[in-house]
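I hope you will forgive my troubling you with a question about protein structure. You will find the record immediately after this paragraph.
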Amino acid sequence: MNIIKSLQYEAIFMPQSEGGYTVEVPDLPGCISEGDTLEEAKENIQEAIEVYIETLRDRKKSVPEPSQDRYFVLGVSARKTKVYA
């Protein structure tokens, strides 16, 4: 009997200045994708996660469990400093 386990990974969506989004999954190093819209980026990262996990299994490597840590993204302001020439 095959049991399918659902894994819930956190993904970080970063808007790009030229448009679209880059997405990375901190619990899966190197698992990065992108998309022109938020919805496309979400679909692409889901596919990237599935391929990442499938590749690990094919190589007989363990699949990392989703981290129990939660990530927080906060805007932080910094004053510009004078540049002396």
In short: The longest strand covers residues 12-15. The CA atoms of residues 34 and 73 lie 19 Å apart. The chain has a mean pLDDT of 88.
